[in-house]
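S1.2 Input.
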Amino acid sequence: MSAGNAVNAIDTALATGEGQEAAVLLERTREKVNPQLRRTVESLPGSMRRVAMYHFGWEHADGTPAAGNTGKAIRPALVLAAAQALRGPGGQVDDAAVRAAAVAVELAHNFTLLHDDVIDRDVQRRGRDTAWTVFGIPDAIITGDAMMALALRLLAEDPHPASAEASARLTACVIELCAGQQADCAFEQRAQVSLDECLTMATAKTGALLGCACALGALYAGAGPEEVEAMDAFGREAGLAFQLIDDLIGIWGDPGHTGKPAGADLIARKKSLPVVAALTSGTAAGEELAALYAGPMTGDDVRRAAEAVDRAGGRDWAQAHAADRMGRAVQQLSRAVPDLGAAGGLLALAEFVTRRTR
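S1.3 Output.
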């Protein structure tokens, strides 16, 4: 399938209403996954449990009950949707095992969030104070470590035949993800970063875990090696599209929706993909952005920087590249699921990550 045909496949799915399924799919995923996710988090001892319960929004800082806000659940939704797509006509999948794998992926994701908030000094997540600002840096880091251990324990204790390979994949994924995070931090100290370097970093930091989520779903559906690898590749390409959109939101997102200050990535002078595209554009606006990035950014500087990214073509490039990556993603998906009609859930999630605004 060509990239153009892949994009047409998404458009066809949208025309038939499949692209509108994402919200329902994500809500059903939370309903399926959150009970086990909460039970697993509640197994943590003492203060780590308290930090984790706060992070997921199930408790206030003083330990009293809260409504809960566990996030969008994109990664566990990919696990479940991949398993559904590959179970085939009349196929059977161990739903309990797939749910456990989905919980493991979500725990691994939140391990990264707790650490990222410390590294980036982010003070808001999901509309409330980040865990490190409430409980301190040591407790936030240690709780993140414990979440990763919980994820691996879930897979290690699972008697499903796919659990060993799933555990190995998740472990390798986290190592790659950490390498991506390390590169991201290193870029902040460098005056010049190439677009290829930035794309490689984003694929490791974001694409690796989405690819792993899809691969785990395929494994638990009993898929063969080629199908598993194709699903991993689909998730990686979709993950890069996701990161491109996330970077746009980091500049132009509505704080009321994102739970973070306007222009948060610009304030932190992050070398996000639209920013690097602008900085390497060879335009006057790119030079203006470089000058702004050379010093601390406050007040009107943030607005000027956002306008410079836009005028230098960073915004348009990121939007176009996200669409291109989704075309590549669907190409990979068609290798595992030739009849894309059986992959409606995955296509709906793909549409969501490339068209969301928050």
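S1.4 Remarks. The radius of gyration is 20 Å.
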